[in-house]
Amino acid sequence: MPEKTTSPSLRDLPKVDALLLTTDFEALAQRYGRTPVAQETRAALDSLRQRLRANNGVNTTEISPHGLALRVRESLEKLFAPRQCRVINATGVILHTSLGRAPLAPAAVEQAVREASGYSLLELDRESGKRSDRDKLVNDLICRVTGAQAATVVNNNAAATMIILNSLAEGREVICSRAHMVEIGGSYRMPDVMRKAGCKLVEIGCTNKTHPRDYEDAVTPQTALLLKVHTSNYAVVGFTEEVSLPDLMAIGKKREVPVFYDLGSGSLVDLAKYGISREPSVPELLKHELDVLCISGDKLLGGPQAGIIIGKPEIVQRVKKNALFRMVRCDKFTLSLLEATLKLYLDEDSALKRVPTLAAITRDAGEVKLSAERICASLKKAGLDVSTASATSQVGGGSTPGEFLPTTVIVWRGPFKSVDDIARRLRLGTPCVFARIEDNALLFDPRSLLPGQDDELAAAILAVKA
Ligand SMILES: *Cc1c(COP(=O)(O)O)cnc(C)c1O
């Protein structure tokens, strides 16, 4: 029987059409649809053909209909696998930009899914039957929870900054302190944003100190705006001085130039009693009758990605009349999510409980400690050598730089061959787990866990222990 040991030749490759009629492939087509099955089958046959031409040790099982079906199924499984898997954030960074910033309130998601899966009243007034403005869905809520006079919403805070600058200062000068030349990451750098918005940046002061007279001296008939930018991801400390918002407002008023504050994160509630003392709340800032400010929807607010523009009615109107507005407006899904999130803010206690970001920030340190101890005990019971330790969590997401929240972490020192390898296996598990690595140990911080994830975290850790 010497023929049996010879390797297959090109002639032995099955034909696509014949393969697709076999029961194995029929079953795949039922599950994944005919088009992707045919495409993956052709690709599998192409690669076998190449290997056969190169005499690359193809065996008979690989080219059998069953062997091919297994291979095609594998590539279809990869193609259809969820790209976004469930993530357990045990890093202690509550607004983790790479992990999607603010987790949404379940109530908000339910409402948005319900509304977005059918037709909606996005731009129609029921009473008159006429076209209306999609902003009406959230404007009054934004004004009510912040004390603003007028508001509008765009896709993100970067778009908000861009359109405000372009609407109020295109072709004119914008005065900004050198301490506020922020780079947020990616390609978002204030001087570049300014150029793209068509504004001429007038830099004043020094990195560490800017005085009122620096602004005063820079104002010319060409000045359109005084800009203040929240230093979201850094803090200037030491021999420093900056012009307070009321002082800046006074200069703006005297010289008849509006003041724009790119606040970035922006909390709607006062977080001072929860240990975040350097982050003024939006309602507090608006007491100064600021001309215009913008904040992100998915940072401290804890809602969907959006850029919320708040200000004097005539300024908000100018932004909405800008031709760029259409390019940065929000869709119905975002607006539903935002509407439902803002409603949670109608009562502060309800927001603190039900907006996940706020619940995590304001969670009592004693409660976080209990949670850490419970997880630690269940890991110990399963034979893991772990302990708890005091540590700090961060709000993250470009807010409250240099401010930390007290927490208790679970510390796992191994023994492992490589802490990076264990961290990688935690990331590749289901659900996928992100932890902190410090001094060759893994640290798990319960402060950034969502309700009900304690047991899931413990199970995920035990799954990689083996
Ligand atoms: C985060 C941030 C932005 C960008 O906001 P996105 O919502 O990510 O577009 C702009 N300015 C400041 C000061 C920020 O903190």
Overall description:
The chain has 466 residues and is of the alpha/beta class. The chain has 3 domains: 10-79, no CATH class; 87-96 and 359-465, Alpha-Beta Complex (Aspartate Aminotransferase, domain 1); 106-354, Type I PLP-dependent aspartate aminotransferase-like (Major domain) (Aspartate Aminotransferase, domain 2, 3-Layer(aba) Sandwich). The protein is built from 20 helices and 16 strands. Strands 3-11-10-9-8-4-7 form a 7-stranded mixed β-sheet, sandwiched between helices. A 5-stranded mixed β-sheet has the order 2-12-13-16-15. Strands 1-14 form a two-stranded parallel sheet. Strand 12 (386-396) and strand 13 (404-412) form a beta hairpin. The longest helix is centred in the first third of the chain and has 20 residues, at 34-53. The protein is globular and about 90 Å long. The chain starts with 15 loop residues before the first helix and ends with a helix. It binds pyridoxal-5'-phosphate.
